[in-house]
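# step 3/5: fold
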Amino acid sequence: MQVKKVAGALGAELSGIDLTKGLDKSQAAEVRQALLDHQVIFLRNQPLTPSQFLAFARAMGEPIEYPFVKGLPDYPQIIEVKKLEHEKVNFGGIWHSDTTYLQEPPMGSMLLSKEVPPYGGDTLFASQYAAYEALSPTMQRLLDGLVGISSSAKADVSKTREDRIKSDGTEEAKKEYRAEHPVVRTHPETGRKALYVNVAHTAGIKGMTDEESAPLLQFLFAHQVKPEFTCRFVWEPDSIAFWDNRCTQHNPVNDYHGFRRVMQRITLRGAKPV
């Protein structure tokens, strides 16, 4: 396996692996270590069937079902993330960390590209290690110990789910989920600290009024996605992006109106942030 970094803050492309043949334990451990080292990893030329994609996910963690969108008929853990030719809004088209409104947000998520537009539709990723480490020691001390309040019902992200909920929504789609998590979390495997708020889901800070928390959150939302903390992935058919949800955010760019983009996504079980 070869590992090639794609940006300074995070991201690496892996080559020399054929996931259609499956991974043995040592290969799976290498891939998992690459994820921990680089926060998001990319693999190209992986024409996987749903069962092969699920086998890769199981080698990395425990696949779970997504609360708002139904999975494929025989594979409930695999959902389609798609934007069709006539649609203007893309699913999850805002900077976010996946489902932080759950009590146990996912460890990671992976996307497999099935249909990509002729241009556009890239995905941006941002390192929340780098974002935290770039803060002043005074700001770090201020944030340590604060608790963020996450909601699934913030307006900007809710709009990005409307088309998919209409076509593939679950019974849970109209329910609001809320959870409280540290503003700064410690990664359970690396021990590094990462910012853990995001503009899509973080609605406030526990013990603060909205007027008090809003300026602090607005600063963090702008700071945590500065260009120097990011990388950008240009999709091709049969590509995989696998990101560590505990220390990254991502944002799919919505710049391909009139074209179809279809991905398959699997989410992996996580634990309560600390």
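# step 4/5: annotate
The two ends are 33 Å apart (CA to CA).
# step 5/5: archive (pending)
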